[in-house]
Specification:
- The protein has 17 helices and 35 strands.
- Among the domains are: about 25-170, Topoisomerase II, domain 5 (Alpha-Beta Complex); about 350-455, Topoisomerase, domain 3 (Orthogonal Bundle), CATH 1.10.268; about 500-720, Neuraminidase.
- The strands form 11 sheets. It has a 4-stranded mixed β-sheet. Strands 10-11-13-12 form a 4-stranded antiparallel β-sheet, with helices on one face.
Length: about 725
Amino acid sequence: MEELKIINRKFSDEISERYLSYALSTITSRSLPDVRDGLKPVHRRLLYAMRQLKLNPNSNFKKSARVVGDVMGKFHPHGDAAIYDAMVRMAQDFSLKYPLVDGQGNFGNLDGDNAAAMRYTEAKLTEFAELLLKDIDYNTVDFQETYDGEDDEPSVLPSAIPNLLANGSQGIAVGMATTIPPHNLGELLDASLYLLKYPDTTDQKIMTFIKGPDLPTGGIIVETEESIYETYKVGKGSVKVRSRWNVEKLKNGTWQIIVTEIPYQVVKSKLVEKIDILIEEKKIPLISEINDESAEDIRIVIEPKNRNISPEVLMENLFKFTDLESRVHLNLNYLDKNNIPGVRSLKNALKDWLEHRKEILERKSNFRLNKIKDRLKIIDGQIIVYLNLDRVIQIIREEDNPKDLLKKEFKLNEIQVNSILDMRLRSLRKLEEIELKKEKNNLISEKNELIKILSDEDKKIYVLVNQIKKIKSDLKNKIDRKTTFDNLPEIEITNFDDYIEKEPITIILSSQNWIRTQKGHIDLNSEFKFREGDSSKNIFHAKTNDKIIFFSEHGNFYTILANKLPSGRGFGEPLSKFFDLDGNEKIISSFSFFEGIVAIASSDGLGFKINTQNVVASTRSGKKIFNLNENQKAKSLTICNDELLAVTGSNRKMLIFNILELPELSKGKGVILQRYKDGYLEDIKCVSKTKGISWFLSGGRQRTEKDITSWIGKRGGAGKMVPNGFPRPPKFD
């Protein structure tokens, strides 16, 4: 028994080495496509297995399960689900621009529905797949042993078309990824023809042939030529793709928008669902309804709520908020002929494919040349028979071992003798001799042509050019461009808010931060229902296009469009659904936005003025305006529409001073409004010297103190006791 040896190595070194091996194996054998045929191993094995099953375009379909079983048993020892998924994608005309599998049955759809089980679907190769496999029997590519050593499989396919760019590819490896969108095959072939003639041409010149991706789902690319050029030059970037749409006129001057194409890899059902949710949440209020009326072709119907807006403006806003506009990414990362991964330019990808095609041409030519040489030897031997027919017949009839004598007398090799002995009597006709000589002349001519191809680089290019031209001619009706190009329209992106119908509503805010709206301006003294244990906080009139401002005890301002607030006769919804409120953060004031000045105050008697334009928030988290001292809270807000500011404290003292004494800030702590020995600020309110101070008594009666002179002083004073009958606690409203 061999003695076991312990090798001392650092654990980190061992792990690093093994992980690197795993990473390289994943990159080269699973995740990244080969530039030569644009395929990963699983796709290559699928196509080769289908060819072995004789599933040609003109043959009958066979069950997908049969194909998957052959691939899994012979070539790809992985799960059947992964193999079938790869096969399904090659059959989807919305995933590949030029599908490689002709599927019969349910192979999925744009709504993201899965394909039917493999036992229900059938498949065969397409003519594009045939182009990938063309000439594979002519020793054009290397074969390698399968995983069990019982069979051989191609390491790469001949690929008569640049499939990597034509159909694109996606993959995630260890530490790298590839994302290549489909391109137009006609444009790729034109660029290849030019590159063959001018191999030193620039990337910019190649871009005159290939304008950008050509996506199977169509759409419109709205990207500048300069941007697309930079993306293809470095092999990394993205292009912006928009849905294709048109306006359908209806009766009485009405209209609706019809979306006929959506961006690549956008799931249609999720797109429609998302837009429907945005309509429900009133985030795109100009749309009343969206319906998916698609059958074989895409037809998404969008009905506007406000028909005064132009369709172009409406769509620009939809592009902004939905996946009707998305980015198609490009990361041109692939394996070259040496199995080395890397990100290359578009020109280099085409160049690598053309090098592969040149090698295929050379190997096919050598293969054919050897076959011709063998055939010429046989023909030379058979011609000898015709020249010495009587003697050959005599030897065959009389000799016990005619093979050796024939070899010796006519100087023939083994192959030639065997072919003579295998000849039938009827082939000894004079006509056959003529045909042999004709065949010999043709073969010699072909042989000379092949030798010229192998020895002359210009001849190779000439042949490649003709091959590409023929392919393009054969496919001319199947390679039309679907994705078009356009400039971004010069339309000012108008906010939807500007087009919201101005309807009167009543906003009802409860003490526990529940909010709702009701149609119309309801009497504010009406009875409103609230959840058990809850009560009214603020009820005011507004319009659907108003911005509603909320001021919280933490010194934060929050903003929402009135149109987006819940409506109905229920209890509404909590404000936490619309804003990121901190715990039990309470709202102390709310109002419809106006251009003007408000004053805010904290419980420790500090405050300042602020312009309302500075309090409008654009995010759920709001805007931090009031920097509060520890353990202090924002206490009150008042609109500054009078010349004086009245302040009351929990000690029931009131101070009134000129509003001009209060500084205007954009944010901060503020200044002292009223001093307290024991107590805190209770409320503030702007008042007029001529009108005095008013407050409500029990039963809804109002009382007014017109002479407020005795409470007027300088900011920061202690103030005097409030008038008799003033509410407890001393609040103005």
